[in-house]
Amino acid sequence: MIKIFEKDELTKKERVLRTLRHQEVDRVALHDQLSYNPGVISMYTGKHIEGFDYTAEDIGRTISVTLDSCFPFYTPYDTDRYTDEYGFVYQNDNWTRWHVSRPFSDEHGAKEWLCRYIGDLTRQVKKFDVASYRKSYCEYMQYMCALAGETVIIDITGTGFCEAYDRMGLEIFSYFQFEYPDILEEYMEVSAELALRRANIAVYAEFTPVVLIAEDFATKQGPIFSVDFLNRFHFPYVKCLARILHDNGVYVIYHSDGNYKKSIPALIECGVDGFYCLEPNCGMDIVGLKHEYPEMVWAGGVDGVDLLERGTPEQTRAEVGRHITETDALKTGGMMIASSSEINPTVKPENFRAMIEAADIYRKLH
Predict the structure, then answer these.
(1) Considering the entire predicted model, what is its pTM?
(2) How far lies 58's CA from each of 78, 95, 201, 360, in Å?
(3) What letter does residue 261 receive in the DSSP assignment?
(4) Kindly report the CA angle at 255 between 358 and 152, in degrees rounded to 5?
(5) Phi and psi of 209, rounded to 5°?
(6) Which helix (H) or strand (E) holds 326?
(7) Between the chain's N and C termini, which has fewer beta carbons within 10 Å?
C-alpha cells in the first residue's frame, strides 16, 4: 500500500469508497486536478522546471504522493494558435485556451454550424463501434492508472450541453435558443445519445468507483438559464446519463462553476450522488452545503483564488481544518478536500502543500 502519510490505515481506493458511502474514514480524502502548476510539480519531484517543461510522468509522480483521487491529467498545451475543422480559431497558452474567433457572427450562422455538427454526431452514433471504443477506453484508463499509481482516477463525462453555448458564445446562444429551440433539442438528443453509448461501454467500474458529469451553467449570481430552459435542455439528459452510470456500478458527481444552489434539488432528482467545485466567493460554502444536504458527497471547497493563490499556509491549514471539523467528515464521510477549481499555475506551492498536510493534522484520533 502506497501511503501519503505514515499514519494512513486505509488504501486510497478504500478511503474514496468509504467517503462515497458516507462511512467513517481515517482521514479526509484528498482530490484535485494537478496538471498545470510547475511549482507544485517541482516541489514534489525535485525536478528543476523551466516554464511548463515537464512530462505526464512528472504529473503522475506528484499525484501519487499527494492525492487519493484525481481527474485525468494532461501535459500543458503549447502556445500555438490553431483552427479546427469547422473554422473555430483557438489560442493555446500552456494551461488554458480560448476562442479567438468563430466561423459565424449571429444566430443564423450558428444554426448552420450546429446543423452540420449534428450531422457529424449522428454519423458517429450510427457507426459507433462497441469493441473499438471499449479497447481505446481501457487503454486510456490503464495509462492514467499506471502514471498515478494507486491514486483513483475519477473520469469525466458530459451531455454536450456546455459545448453548444461555449462554441457560440453566450450572446449568440441566447438569440439562437430563442430562434431555433427545436434544433437545440435535436442537438441535445444526439449529443446525449453518443455520451450514453460511451458510458454504457466504458467499463468504468474496472477502474474507478465514481465518474464526474461536468457541465457549467451558473455565474456568481446563480444559474444563467431559467428553470424551464434547464428542465427542457439539460436536466433530462443528466438524469439519463446518471442512470446509465449507476447501472454500470459507479457513483455520479456533478460539476458546475458558479452558484448553482437553486438547482441542487433538481440535480439531486436527476440522481447525482454529490457535487464538485464549490466556490466560496460565489456563496458555495462546503460546510453549509454538507449540513444542508448530508446525504450528498461534497468536494472542491477550498478557495482556489483568494486563499490558495493569495493566502498563507497557516490560513490554508485553518480553512481545511474548518471543513473537516465543522462537518464531522471523519465520522460521516461524504466530503473530499480539494480546491474550488484546480491547482492553476498561480496557486502557491506552499499553500497546496499546506492543504495536503492539513488532512494529516486533522485526522481521526485513537
Answers:
(1) 0.96
(2) 17, 16, 30, 24
(3) G
(4) 55
(5) -90, -5
(6) helix 313-327
(7) C
What is the residue type of 260?
Answer: Y
Reference 40, options 306, 323, 304; nearest CA is 304
Which amino acid does the sequence have at 115? Answer: C
Provide CB contacts within 8 A for 7, sequence distance 6+.
26, 27, 360, 363
List the Cα angle 297/301/303 in 5-degree steps: 170
In the block, residue with C-alpha cell 427545436? 182
Structure letter (DSSP) for residue 260: -
* Helical residues (DSSP H) of 21-129, grouped into ranges: 38-45, 56-64, 107-126
Q: Is 234 helix (H, G, I), strand (E, B) or coil?
A: coil
Backbone angles phi, psi at 318, to 5 degrees: -65, -40
pLDDT digits (tens, 9 = 90+) for 101-110: 999 999 999 9
Burial 248-259 (b: 16+ CB within 10 A, else e): bebbbbbbbbbb
How does pLDDT run across 146-171, given as a tens digit for each residue? 999 999 999 999 999 999 999 999 99
pLDDT of residue 364: 79
* Matching residue, cell 510539480: 41
3-state SS, residue 139: helix
Lookup: cell for 337: 478536500
Residues of the chain with confidence (pLDDT) below 70: 366
What confidence tens digit (pLDDT) does each residue in 240-265 have? 999 999 999 999 999 999 999 999 99
